[in-house]
């Protein structure tokens, strides 16, 4: 339902003036006050090739706003889908892959299960490493009460993934994740 009926994938946004799909990427723009109020940290700017109008694609992080627009890319999809899971009473978390993908995990029968709304995939954690051929580095899960490095679960070659993890030492990463985890636990309350 979510992939086919609820959300729409957006490569290039439709023109708000003439509704044409054809737009040309111009560059990044600064979010205006309204866009910023809905969590947009960046905005892609396009020019409509039909009417020459300005087309803005704010990359919203506010799931309530995403439920209104119902379009975006993997980040928007996973953000909104994770909200829907939580609203349905599931324990869930947002998973961020540093090589540019985002999906959800949901706790089912005591086990964290991969759930990608863009792919319509459930419990297929090797989709990216084996199916897409991605060379994963850092895959971090952000829950309401925890932050966890889940990279090992999503790679079919942990040794190769470790060799690619060169932004910080493993001890440094563990400390960063532990600090973020502690902050999430404190923010969520008792």
UniProtKB/TrEMBL annotation:
Any single GO BP term: glycoprotein catabolic process
GO terms under cellular component: cytosol; nucleus
InterPro entries to which the protein is assigned, alphabetical: Papain-like_cys_pep_sf, PNGase, Transglutaminase-like
Domain Transglutaminase-like: 66-119
Entry keyword Metal-binding: yes
Gene3D superfamilies documented for this protein: 3.10.620.30
A molecular-function term among this protein's GO annotations: peptide-N4-(N-acetyl-beta-glucosaminyl)asparagine amidase activity
Protein known as: Transglutaminase-like domain-containing protein
Family affiliation: Belongs to the transglutaminase-like superfamily. PNGase family.
UniProt KW keywords: Metal-binding, Zinc
